[in-house]
Write a structure and sequence with these properties.
Length: 277
């Protein structure tokens, strides 16, 4: 399975990728790789000039020089989850009862064995220093550039980020905003909560890596593969996971490993895979 840009998928699905790691096909035996540190990052933000705000919580695991992450709904991670990961090997964590732990462990392992480098297909994209809103808008432009949809197309956006919607509007693209939290967008548009119900009326999909942790990613990937639709992922969660699925339903990835743009006002780097820019 090869994407139009020549990147070959490592696995046919998320579960196939996990099995490949467990079988030792992608690197060292995961039972020999132990997590040295686990931590959570919490933030609340309300940008100047925006009507609403939001909160984020992310579980991160440190494996050697690599950090793997998975976002969770604020307050959803049970007490003791972080401590349970410290000192555990990746193979055990890939079978953990909590999906965010499994995703963060896979992300850490793949970040360790195949970091975001040009040799692995990554194209670095510099983010300028600035306010959180300036950096959010710069990242959003980088993400939306990965879409090949012509003006007038309708994009299903799974994981609502107002800066992304703003960038789509500037491109002349219609969108259907979807997020499990519901609510409304900055422009008062209703946010749908069932992405699967909206797929048929959309020409392309733009989705957050957080779909890996809440179990909604595979239906999106399967739909995109079956119908030949673009599926572009913007990934703080699973930034090292999703590039392995380009050519297997995923068309492009904007990968943003820890530390994320909202943690620092200085310049940063994200990594883009897939689309021919």
């Amino acid at each position: 399975m090869t994407s139009p840009t020549g990147i070959r998928a490592t696995a046919s699905s998320y579960d196939d990728l996990v099995q490949g790691v467990l079988d030792g096909r992608l690197g060292p035996d995961p039972s020999t790789q132990r997590v040295a540190m686990a931590f959570t990052t919490r933030q609340a933000v309300r940008h100047d000039g925006r009507n609403g705000g939001y909160r984020n919580e992310v579980l991160s695991l440190r494996l050697a020089e690599a950090v793997g992450s998975c976002a969770v709904e604020p307050g959803a991670l049970p007490d003791g989850a972080v401590e349970d990961c410290v000192g555990a090997d990746i193979a055990r964590l890939l079978g953990h009862e909590l999906a965010p732990v499994r995703v963060a462990a896979l992300d850490a392992y793949l970040m360790h064995v195949r970091p975001h480098l040009p040799a692995h297909g990554a194209r670095p994209f510099p983010l300028p220093a600035g306010t959180s809103l300036q950096k959010s808008r710069a990242r959003s432009r980088a993400v939306v550039e990965l879409l090949d949809a012509p003006p007038g197309s309708t994009v299903l956006v799974v994981g609502v980020v107002n800066s992304l919607l703003e960038a789509l509007r500037r491109r002349g693209l219609a969108y259907v905003p979807c997020d499990l939290k519901g609510g409304t967008t900055e422009w008062g548009e209703p946010v749908r909560t069932d992405a699967a119900a909206e797929l048929e009326r959309c020409d392309a999909v733009l989705a957050s890596g957080m779909t890996l942790g809440n179990g909604s990613f595979e239906p999106l990937r399967e739909h995109a593969l079956r119908h030949g639709k673009e599926l572009v992922m913007f990934a703080q969660t699973g930034s090292a996971v999703l590039p392995h699925l380009i050519g297997a339903g995923v068309s492009a990835v904007c990968a943003e490993p820890y530390p994320f743009f909202w943690l620092d006002g200085g310049p940063g780097t994200i990594h883009r895979y897939g689309a021919a820019l």
